[in-house]
User: Fold EamA domain-containing membrane protein RarD from Maribacter vaceletii.
Amino acid sequence: MFRTSSKTTIGIIYAIFGILLFSAKAVLVKLAYKYNVDHLTLLLFRMVFAIPFYLVIAYKQKNVGFVKIKPKDYFWLFVFGFLGYYLASLFDFIGLQYIKAGLERIILFIYPTIVVLLSWLFFNKKITTQQSLAIFITYIGVLITFWDEIGLEGSSVYKGAIFIFLSAITYASYLVGSGWLIPKFGVLRFTANAMIVSTFCVVIHFLIQGNYEIFNYPKEVYFIGVVMAVFCTLIPSFLVSAAIEKLGANTFSIFGSLGPVSTIILAFIFLGEHISFLQVVGMLIVIGGVSIISKKKEK
Assistant:
């Protein structure tokens, strides 16, 4: 009982810090856009500045594994790396061109529902009463905040919302897949290789459609790229993978509700984005939902 409790507590800590660091990325992206950098180049900076760390980790972990790795496992690693850190990030960066950072994180919160549905469809995982209650409560908060944001943003919000919704779908697919593959590869090995796959995809995409003027931006753009690479990509990617390993994809997904809360606060501080009374109410409701899922059921 003690070991299980300790494992859950550590998983919760990893999940919280991983989500908070990932959430800061949206604010940094919005700051970078003020220097007229396009979304693909900014995504390239994020991945390229982080890739040396992942290559070193992948090399050191190349012989680490808990079970025998089959060829199809590598295939699925490529698929989920493509979905989770390339496609999801690409859609996210595009969407952030049209909507505020706070609203971006609120829409992304849709992914817990998608995670639960995919887990039920493909892995026959039961949706518990506790998870259902937590999702219900947190989505009340999300809907309150989202409704108010539409009124504040105007028509441009819909275009950005579509891309962010696509990001939520692809990221949810990654979470479900990683929950299945991490036990086979181990946290470090899986995460490093998934990020290498996504970086490869970003580079190929840039070579095909990029503007190639990667050395002509203000120094602030490169600084933001480094910060995103280390503190909003490298560190949280391992924290999230470790949290999924300890909590499972379904339980971890509920902690995503912390994302809208932290992003709205950070966006208010660094971007001057408006926080309304309804947003405050929504954030409090979201926090209530997270507290429910954090409580361990008595056995």
